[in-house]
Amino acid sequence: MSRLLWFVLGFVVALAVLVVGGYLFLVSGGVRMETTASPLPLERTVARMALHVAYSGSMEQKDPLPPDEANMVAGAQTYKVDCAMCHGLPGAASSLIARGMFPDPPQLFEQKDMVTDDPEGITYWKVTHGIRLSGMPGFGGTLADTARWQVTMLVAHADKLPAAARAALAR
Ligand code: HEC
Fold it and tell me: 104 CA distance to ligand 1 centroid (A)?
């Protein structure tokens, strides 16, 4: 046999081993589906890389609304209805829903999880498109542009909210 033929044969065998190996890994329960199971090797890295590529074009996008009390109060009203059950409220324990999810929904009013340093374009992208296979819904088809920017503004100012927005979250 010619060298080329050996090469092609080797390639096909390697491919078959990969496919069969992947299949056996799957049917033997290698990919756990419980929310309590730990992530697969590289799962977080792959998901983070894919997400970064997806939103990278939106990083420079700026909130068109003025960062005032009225917009943050409106953002707080949206947040209470559509986000709080997963992302929590200031000073409150996380919900049973949040505690049962994989991956964990960041608690956006807790110091360690706040997105106050994230470019608002990224937060707006996540609110609009959601994050597939994470539980984070996309609101692009259900909340108006203005409402998505208002809730983005709210979580971007989580550490320095005006009193009226805090009161709206507490109501
Ligand atoms: C059903 C639960 C659920 C709801 C409702 C939900 N989210 Fe999320 N959200 C998640 C999860 C889970 C993640 C984490 C995804 C990941 O790890 O990639 C997330 C991620 C995010 C992030 C990225 C946080 C970070 O640290 O990078 C932001 C910002 C966010 N959500 C905002 C919102 C806003 C605003 C709303 C309401 C309009 C909302 N989410 C509604 C589950 C939810």
Answer: 9
161 touches ligand 1 (CB under 6 Å): no
d(CA 71, CA 155): 12
Q: Whose CA is nearest to atom 32 of ligand 1?
A: 127
Residue 11 in tokens: 């390639």
The structure tokens 């964990």 sit at 104
pLDDT tens track for 32-74: 999 999 999 999 999 999 999 999 999 999 999 999 999 999 9
CA 98/CA 84 separation, integer angstroms: 9
Q: pLDDT tens digits for 91-143? A: 999 999 999 999 999 999 999 999 999 999 999 999 999 999 999 999 999 99
Instruction: Please give the Cα distance from 142 to 139 (Å, whole number).
Output: 5
Cα(12) to centroid(ligand 1), Å: 43
- Asked if 14 and 94 touch (Cβ cutoff 8 Å), the reply is no
- What count of Cα atoms within 13 Å lies in the side-chain half-sphere of residue 158? 26
Cβ atoms 109, 127 nearer than 8 A: no
Identify which of 86, 89, 112, 151 to mutate to test ligand 1's pocket (most ligand atoms within 8 A of the CB). Answer: 86
